[in-house]
Amino acid sequence: MLGTTEIMLIAGAAILLFGVDKLPKLARSAGQAKKEFLVGQAEADLAAERARDEARRRVEGEVHAAEAATSVNGVGQPTVVPDPQTGAPGPTSVAPPRA
């Protein structure tokens, strides 16, 4: 923790380095930089929240689609899932004939 003596030394060094007329401008620009940083951080937080919500909705949709694909449709037949390699409806692998 900084004591009174250390703060006075830092203030004196700042006056010597920047001059009395430059210190208010320096403090003002530091305040503006902090404000811009906080605004940018808030925007990044909102963008991250939107991305998380979008990913959550996409995963829920995929889970719902997977559940629908494995359930039995209204006719009593299982839902036909296309073959992932050929895109043809239903399974395309055929068992070899028995000898």
Write the layout of secondary structure elements.
Blueprint: H1 4-18, H2 23-70
Description:
With 99 residues, the chain is mainly alpha-helical. The chain has a domain at 20-65. It is 64% helix and 0% strand. It is built from two helices and no strands. The longest helix has 48 residues, at 23-70. The chain is rod-shaped, with a radius of gyration of 33 Å. The model has no long low-confidence stretch (mean pLDDT 81).
Helix content: 55-70%
Poorly predicted ranges (pLDDT <50, ≥5 residues)?
none
Q: Which descriptor suits the 3D outline?
A: rod-shaped
Strand content: under 5%
What profile does the largest beta sheet have?
A: none
Q: Evaluate the radius of gyration.
A: 33 Å
**Helical stretch count?**
2
Number of strands: 0
Distance between the termini: 88 Å
Please state the average pLDDT score. Answer: 81
Structural class: mainly alpha
String of helices and strands: HH
Which descriptors apply to this entry?
0% strand; 2 helices; Sec-independent protein translocase protein TatA; mainly alpha; 99 residues; protein transport; transmembrane helix
What's a quick, concise take on this entry?
Helices cover 64% and strands 0% of the residues. It is built from two helices and no strands. It starts with a helix and ends in a 29-residue tail after the last helix.
